[in-house]
Amino acid sequence: GQLTAYPILHLTAINKTLKWYVCALERAVMQACRGLGVETHTSPDTGVWVSDTSKICAIGIQGRRVTTHGIGLNCCTDLSWFGHIVPCGIHGKTVTSLSRELQRHVSVSEAAGHFTRAFAEVFECSLEDDGTEIGIEELQTLHS
């Protein structure tokens, strides 16, 4: 499976740019991956990478004052399907997953816990779980 997160933020209200938002999402994903034991980095190609040619997390954002879309972090994804497409339109690159990198099963639920904590830290906010799924009920405080 793939962990998807589509935070909705009013960037104008918090005086932030779309570039800031993408970089903050990348930092949150990298911190979550590090918490699971996978070292990652960014590159000129948007997303989070484990090597120069292997992407573990895609980021697709649209924003006109309010953000839409978000991240797709490969946890225990069947990667064979990516052989039929050019992921993110980037030729010569591949995709990987947390499970492949750690050589053990990493569930979406396990990754979600790490990502939720990392997101709250990077975005300096508190998150609430509504009890039905990992979801953000509201961003109570956003300082930076």
Automatic annotation (TrEMBL):
Its EC number is 2.3.1.181. GO terms for molecular function: lipoyl(octanoyl) transferase activity. Transmembrane segments: none annotated. Residues 1-127 form the BPL/LPL catalytic domain. The record marks 55 as: Lowers pKa of active site Cys. InterPro entries: aa-tRNA-synth_II/BPL/LPL, BPL_LPL_catalytic, Octanoyltransferase. Keywords: Acyltransferase, Transferase. GO terms for biological process: protein lipoylation. The active site is at residue 88. Pathway: Protein modification; protein lipoylation via endogenous pathway; protein N(6)-(lipoyl)lysine from octanoyl-[acyl-carrier-protein]: step 1/2. Coiled coil: none annotated. Belongs to the LipB family. PANTHER family: LIPOYLTRANSFERASE 2, MITOCHONDRIAL-RELATED, OCTANOYLTRANSFERASE. This is lipoyl(octanoyl) transferase. It comes from Hirondellea gigas. The lineage of its organism: Eukaryota, Metazoa, Ecdysozoa, Arthropoda, Crustacea.
